[in-house]
C-alpha cells in the first residue's frame, strides 16, 4: 500500500511539472486542462444559466452591456478578440457578473445598478474577462485535482496508523491545504483579474480611477464581512488599495486613447438609477 502511495505522489509531481504555464501577468501557474475542453464547459454552463436565470430582454440594458463589452473586446489579444463573444443581461438584483471560456459574458442588473457609470461597468467587464485570459478556471480545477491526489496519497501512506490518529491527521491536512493553498489561490486569481481588467479598461478608453471607486461602492454594500484569511476574495479595502496603486501605471494607456480621440460612448441608462 505504501508503494502505491509513493507512486501516486511521484506521478502527480511529474504531471505538475509538465503542466506549468505562465499567466498574462507573468505568474507561474498550473494548467492541466486544454482550452478546447474549457470552451465546451463554458458553453454548456452558459446555456444552463440562461435556462435557470431570467434573461432580460430590455433593449436599453442589453445595448449598454454590449457597448462596454465591445469596447473591451476590441483591445483584447487576437486569440480573444477574434472570438464571437455573447453577452447576456440577467434580470436579477444579485451583485454578480461573470465571463466564461469560449466567449460568454453575463451581467446581473443588480451589479449594473451598483456601477455608477460606464467606466465602473468596464472595470467589472475587464475583471471578468481577465479571469478567462488568465485561465483561472483551469488553474483552479487543476489545483483542486492536485490537492485531492495529494490527500489520497497521504491517506494511503497513513494506512497503518490507528484509525483515530489517521482521521485527525487527515482532517488537519484538509484544513491546512484549504487555508494555505486553495483560498490564497482564489485571492490571487481575483487580484490578478483586477490587474488585467484595469489594463484592459485603460486601453479601451475608460477612466482607470473609477476601478477603485467601484470597490468603494462594494464596501458600502457590506461586501467583505468574512475575514480575508478565510475568504476566496481579497477584502474591498485591499482591492481599493491595490487598484489605487496600479492606476498611475496604466494612465499612459488611457491618455494614449484620449489623444487618439476614439473614446467609447456607452451612456448609462437612467432606469438603472431606480
TrEMBL record:
Transmembrane feature ranges: none
Cleavable signal peptide: 1-18
Annotated ranges, domain Peptidase M48: 80-245
Keyword annotations: Hydrolase, Metal-binding, Metalloprotease, Protease, Signal, Zinc
Single Gene Ontology BP annotation: proteolysis involved in protein catabolic process
Any GO MF annotation of the entry: metalloendopeptidase activity
Cofactors demanded by this protein: Zn(2+)
Cofactor note: Binds 1 zinc ion per subunit.
Domain of life: Bacteria
GO cellular component: membrane
Entry-linked InterPro entries: Mito/Outer_Membr_Metalloprot (IPR051156), Peptidase_M48 (IPR001915)
Pfam family, one: Peptidase_M48
Residue span of region Disordered: 221-240
UniProt similarity note: Belongs to the peptidase M48 family.
Protein name from the UniProt record: Peptidase
Organism: Aliidiomarina shirensis
Amino acid at each position: 500500500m505504501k508503494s502505491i502511495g509513493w507512486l501516486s505522489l511521484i506521478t502527480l509531481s511529474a504531471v505538475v511539472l509538465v503542466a506549468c504555464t505562465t499567466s498574462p501577468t507573468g505568474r507561474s501557474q498550473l494548467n492541466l486542462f486544454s482550452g478546447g475542453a474549457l470552451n465546451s464547459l463554458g458553453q454548456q454552463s452558459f446555456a444552463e444559466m440562461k435556462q435557470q436565470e431570467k434573461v432580460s430582454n430590455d433593449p436599453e440594458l442589453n445595448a449598454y452591456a454590449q457597448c462596454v463589452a465591445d469596447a473591451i473586446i476590441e483591445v483584447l489579444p487576437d486569440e480573444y478578440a477574434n472570438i464571437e463573444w455573447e453577452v447576456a443581461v440577467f434580470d436579477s438584483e444579485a451583485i454578480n457578473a461573470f465571463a466564461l471560456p469560449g466567449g460568454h459574458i453575463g451581467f446581473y442588473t443588480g451589479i449594473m445598478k451598483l456601477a455608477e457609470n460606464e467606466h465602473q461597468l468596464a472595470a467589472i467587464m475587464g475583471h471578468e474577462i481577465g479571469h478567462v485570459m488568465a485561465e483561472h478556471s483551469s488553474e483552479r480545477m487543476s489545483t483542486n485535482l492536485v490537492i485531492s491526489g495529494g490527500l489520497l496519497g497521504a491517506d494511503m501512506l497513513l494506512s497503518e496508523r490507528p484509525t483515530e490518529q489517521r482521521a485527525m491527521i487527515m482532517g488537519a491536512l484538509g484544513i491546512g491545504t484549504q487555508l494555505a493553498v486553495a483560498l490564497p489561490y482564489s485571492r490571487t486569481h481575483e487580484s490578478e483579474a483586477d490587474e488585467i481588467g484595469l489594463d484592459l479598461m485603460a486601453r479601451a478608453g475608460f477612466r482607470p480611477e473609477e476601478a477603485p471607486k467601484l470597490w468603494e461602492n462594494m464596501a458600502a454594500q457590506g461586501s467583505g464581512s468574512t475575514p480575508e484569511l478565510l475568504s476566496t476574495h481579497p477584502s474591498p479595502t485591499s482591492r481599493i488599495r491595490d487598484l489605487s496603486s496600479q492606476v498611475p501605471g496604466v494612465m499612459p494607456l488611457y491618455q494614449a486613447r484620449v489623444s487618439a480621440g476614439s473614446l467609447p460612448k456607452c451612456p448609462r441608462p437612467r432606469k438603472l438609477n431606480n
